[in-house]
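Recall that a protein's primary structure is simply its ordered list of amino acids. Everything else, from secondary elements to tertiary packing, is in principle encoded there. The following example makes that idea concrete.
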Amino acid sequence: MSDLFSLEGRKALVTGANTGIGQAIAVALAGQGAHVVCAGRRACDETVAAIEAAGGRAEALLLDFSDPMAARDTFKDAGYSILVNNAGIIRRADSVDYSEEDWDAVIDVNQKALFFTCQAFGKELMAKGQEGAIVNIASLLSFQGGIRVPAYTASKHAVAGITKILANEWAAHGITVNAIAPGYIATNNTEALRNDPERSEAILARIPAGRWGDAEDIGGTAAYLCSRAAKYVTGAVLNVDGGWLAR
C-alpha cells in the first residue's frame, strides 16, 4: 500500500504551469514521481527548474489556449496518462458593459479549450486502451455568481458540467475526470485583494480555516486525484477552500 499515491511511470501535462496554482500542481505531481510537461503561453522555465532541482523530471511546452484547439495534436503517441487543465483567464466589467470580445476570449480559453483538450487526451487513451486521469481547475464561481465577471462565472460553471459529463462517458474506459474548485489562494492573481485591508479582512472573516490557501494545497489535492488512491473518484468537483462554501 506504500505506493498508493505514487505517480511513478506516469506522464502528465499541466497547463498554465508557469506560476501560481499550475506551478504548484506541476511540482506536486513531479514530487510523486510523474514526468511533468509544463505547458503555457509563456515560458515555464522556472517551474521546470524547480522540479529538476528537487530531482524530478520535467520539460516545457508552449501552448496558447486563445486557440481552443491548441492541444489537438499534443497527445498522439506521446505517452500521457494525466491531464491537468489549469490554464484560464479572467476579464472584469459590469455585466451591462461587458463586451463580446471579452466574453469570447474568456470562454475560448476557460471552457472551449478545456473541453477540446480533454477530448484529444481521451481519444488517444481510448484508442490505445489505456487508463488515465483528468483534473480540471474549476472555481468557487462554479457554485456562486460573483460580481463583474460574467464570462468567468459562466465558464467555471461549464467546467463543472464538462467534468461530470466526461466522467459519465469515460468511466467505463478507466479514465477518471474530476475538478478542483480552489478557494481564496495566495497567488499573484489575488495579491491586490490581500493588499486591501478591508477586502482581505472580509474574506478571512468568512473562511473557517482563518487563512488564505496556499497553492500547495491545490497541488496536493491534484496529486491525490491523479493517483491510485482516487481510482474510484470520478465526476467530483472538490472544493479546496478552507471551509468557505460551508459557511
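The CA atoms of residues 164 and 191 lie 32 Å apart. Helices lie at 20-31, 45-53, 100-128, 150-170, 191-194, 197-206, 215-226.
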